[in-house]
Design the sequence.
């Protein structure tokens, strides 16, 4: 084999190895930053991971928002009109956060089954609802409204 050909083969081999490493790093980074969405029913049924960050969406139940201390900790319940999940968040809630409104929270479950949120996202106008929440609510029966015949 001529030295020039040997040098080209080495260069091609190094480029293939470099491309493989770059692809591997990109896939690893993508997998680490991937965050799945689960409805409250999925969480109650055990489909959500225990020690992994994921997104939880639903409607904030009216009358469920409580502030146990004078601090920034807030506890509330989310529902998809089928099952409820308790959410705890320490921090400043978005200005648009209200009871009876759709939200998406990022966080993970603790050992007691309470969702510990790291971030809470609220809708930004009256007509908007996160697509994941809208889809999960479509799969549930309509809520019962008291006072109607």
Sequence:
């Amino acid at each position: 084999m001529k030295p020039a050909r040997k040098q080209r083969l080495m260069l091609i081999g190094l480029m293939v190895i470099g491309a493989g490493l770059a692809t591997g790093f990109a896939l690893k980074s993508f997998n680490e930053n991937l965050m799945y969405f689960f409805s409250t029913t999925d969480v109650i049924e055990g489909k959500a991971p225990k020690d992994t960050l994921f997104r939880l969406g639903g409607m904030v139940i009216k009358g469920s928002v409580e502030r146990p201390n004078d601090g920034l900790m807030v506890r509330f319940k989310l529902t998809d009109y089928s099952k409820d999940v308790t959410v705890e968040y320490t921090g400043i809630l978005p200005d648009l956060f209200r009871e009876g409104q759709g939200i998406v929270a990022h966080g993970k479950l603790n050992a007691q089954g309470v969702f510990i949120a790291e971030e809470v996202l609220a809708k930004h106008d009256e007509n908007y609802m996160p697509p994941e929440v809208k889809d999960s609510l479509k799969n549930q029966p309509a809520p019962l409204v008291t006072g109607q015949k």
